[in-house]
Design goal:
The protein has helices at about 60-70, 90-95, 105-125, 130-140, 160-175, 190-200, 220-230, 245-255, 270-280, 295-310, 325-330, 375-380; strands at about 5-10, 30-40, 45-50, 145-155, 180-185, 210, 235-240, 260, 285, 335-340, 355, 360. Helix 2 (about 90-95) packs antiparallel against helix 3 (about 105-125), helix 3 packs across helix 10 and helix 7 (about 220-230) packs parallel to helix 8. About 35% of the residues lie in helices and about 15% in strands. By secondary structure, the chain is an alpha/beta fold. Strands 4, 5, 6, 7, 8, 9, 10, 11 and 12 form a nine-stranded mixed beta sheet that branches. The protein has two domains: about 5-125, Enolase-like, domain 1 (2-Layer Sandwich); about 135-370, Alpha-Beta Barrel (TIM Barrel), CATH 3.20.20. Bound molecules: magnesium ion (MG). The site of magnesium ion (MG) has 4 residues, from loops.
Length: about 375
């Protein structure tokens, strides 16, 4: 089998929201299609992916070196031992040839997006959903039928922030979510308190609330904020400090609040440093984003690194709120997946196959990742190969 074409395109995310540090008015994302010469039901098998959201498109390195490098490599070297399917880890290793060590963010998104599309192909050729492939190869082989899901949102930008948040949280509860995460750290403490209390008031009994601080604070301000909100018994404080401010994370963790981080770390080596030097022990939820950090293949390396630091799979909640993370959670037995319902244009939410009830998400049945059942997104993805 051969890869015959790889197409990428930049798509505007069209979002008016903001978190504590950035607004998303200029946000873009990259979509890719990897076309093979394998024919199923009269059509070539095509793998699709996008580079998550919240960081910008990564078409430059794809166009300038990784797509040409992929198409120039001998096809036989990309196949698994049986020669019947692609071998994404082998392909990733090949694409990393002639790349210097370190500086991961410069390439990890381009390669991670490509890698997710390759895993889509692998599962389509095996005629089963991606989570089943991951479970068979790297998990228990016994996939759950549902996985824990929490909903993210509560961005800033509304004229009446508390009333708007109340409406949003009510919609989440009506839609079947129990646990939630809202942005915080970007307005006065007084207003954030009102927002936290509004959300806690509406979540169902037992529902947990996390705050995403979007790297708003230095260590001193992070500690002060953590002490202020500790009485609320929050699920976690996410990214209180810059992703590389290990001492800051450590100091905030010392207050005794739960800590989460990792969506802005771009590979296993960066997770290793984070876990080694932030010294949070078991008080950490890790949130790797597969397409931002060398793909599903990169996630497998991150899981190994986490294990060496004693962080169990149950404490890993991949970032992204998309089908790629959903498959990773289900197939690799991770803690849970996040969901974003409405803020990110065509990239929002899961596919029509996924149902939410009582804080859990059902799993897609389509072969591969299943973007084909996410109509608005699939319309722009499939347009790549017209
Ligand atoms: Mg976050």
């Amino acid at each position: 089998m051969r890869i015959t074409r790889v197409i990428e395109r930049t798509i505007k995310v069209e979002s008016k929201i903001r978190n504590a540090r950035v607004d998303l008015s200029e946000m873009t994302a990259t979509i890719v299609a990897v076309v093979t010469d394998v024919i199923q039901e009269g059509r070539p098998v095509v793998g699709y992916a996008f580079n998550s959201y919240g960081r910008y498109a990564c078409g430059g390195p794809l166009r300038e070196r990784f797509i040409p490098r992929l198409l120039a490599t001998e096809p036989e070297s990309f196949l698994d031992d049986e020669g019947t399917n692609l071998d994404p880890p082998r392909i990733l290793a090949s694409l990393l040839a002639r790349e210097k060590a370190g500086g991961h963010a410069e390439r990890s998104m381009a390669l991670g997006t490509l890698d997710c599309a390759l895993w889509d192909i692998v599962a389509k050729i095996e005629c089963c959903p991606l989570y089943q492939v991951l479970s068979d190869r790297f998990g228990t082989g016994r996939s759950a039928t549902t996985v824990p899901v929490y909903v993210g949102g509560g961005f800033y930008g509304a004229e009446d922030p508390v009333a708007t948040l109340r409406d949003e949280v009510s919609r989440w509860v009506d839609a079947g979510y129990r646990d939630a995460k809202i942005k915080a750290g970007g307005v006065s403490l007084d207003l954030d308190r009102k927002r936290i209390e509004a959300a806690l008031d509406l979540l169902p009994s037992g529902g947990r609330l996390a705050l995403d601080l979007s790297c708003a604070f230095d260590a001193q301000a992070g500690v002060a904020f953590a002490k202020d909100v500790k009485p609320y018994g929050l699920w976690w404080l996410e990214e209180p400090c810059d992703p590389l401010d290990y001492d800051g994370y450590h100091a905030v963790g010392e207050t005794g609040v739960g800590i989460a981080g990792g969506e802005n770390l771009f590979g296993a080596r960066e997770f290793d440093n984070f876990l080694r030097y932030a010294r949070l022990g078991s008080n950490i939820v890790l949130q790797p984003d597969p397409p931002l950090a060398y793909g599903i293949t990169g996630l497998l390396d991150i899981l190994s690194t986490a294990q060496t630091h004693g962080v169990p799979h149950a404490s890993i909640y991949p970032h992204g709120g998309n089908l790629m993370s959903l498959h990773a959670v289900a197939g690799l037995g991770l803690g849970g997946v996040e969901a974003y319902l409405e803020q990110f244009g065509v990239f929002s939410g899961f596919s029509h196959e996924v149902r939410i009830a009582d804080g859990r998400a059902t799993l897609p049945a389509l072969p591969g990742i299943g973007f084909e059942a996410q109509p608005a997104l699939y319309a722009v993805m499939s347009d790549l190969i017209r």
